Amino acid sequence: MDLRHLRYFRAIGREEHFGRAALQLRVAQPALTRQIKDLEAELGVELFERLPRGVRLSAAGQVFLRDVEDILAQVDRAVDRARRLASGHLGTIRVGLSEIISGHGFISYGLLKFREGEPGVVLDLKSMGSMQQIMALKDGTIDAGIVYDAHVDDRDGPLIDRARIGVGHTMLAVHEGHRLAGRAAVTMDELADEPALWPTRRTAPGYYDRLMAACTAAGGAPRIVQECTTNSILLSLVAVGMGIGFVTVSPPLASFHNIRLVPITGLDLGFDVLLVWRRSDRSAALHRFIEMMVPAADRPPA
């Protein structure tokens, strides 16, 4: 017995007529009759009562048809899932996310767009720092990450592929009541005596070094009074007036309404926001995710 026998039986059971079922299946009627006789012989029961005009399901045939309907529906669902998985419309993508998501709305909107466009793909979002994401990619515990370019080493090129999904600009974050909150721009000289909140180097050495070098080149190193392990901690402290902060964002900053962002003249510092993944990963769902998250102009060649 194979699926062909079950599909033939279902068609005849629904129509209760060999001729109409044969037309529907595009099978010669004698061949269809022979297949059903073979099925009945294998089962050891008569599935149909032969009538002068057509056939009628026997009691055993009625029970068998209900089960066959369920079996073929399950087979059809399995085939559909396999095809969707192979084409990237089904599966799970493990994505690493750090605090930078709060500063760049396009990340959240990109995830929303993918969620709405591919409801059959589960987005397993894992909170971890940028350096952790790079290690997790290498270990195979995540499938993709979203990090600043400062965290990707050229030596990772053979293992990790990348594409830009946006750009973040480094700006001054101050409380709305700060004397500089209403300024169109400030210089590093004006910030020399300001208490500064700063990212810790331990968790983001590449970002820290580039930010410090750019500030020094623009007029002098800031007066750091507090290092912060996460961007949300830094912004929370700016929001209560503990100090000024240097943040990389894509305005507007919607998370903290009492914070003002002010450009810093001469500090031309931006970070590419990268989507990163294992170069060897051939997952169809992952590549659909890449296509949706990465602007066409920044997409790597296939």
From TrEMBL:
Keywords: DNA-binding, Transcription, Transcription regulation. It comes from the Bacteria. GO terms for cellular component: protein-DNA complex. Residues 1-58 form the HTH lysR-type domain. It holds the Pfam family LysR_substrate. CDD domains: PBP2_LTTR_aromatics_like. GO terms for molecular function: DNA binding; DNA-binding transcription factor activity. Transmembrane segments: none annotated. PROSITE patterns: HTH_LYSR. Belongs to the LysR transcriptional regulatory family. This is Transcriptional regulator, LysR family. The lineage of its organism: Bacteria, Pseudomonadati, Pseudomonadota, Alphaproteobacteria, Sphingomonadales.
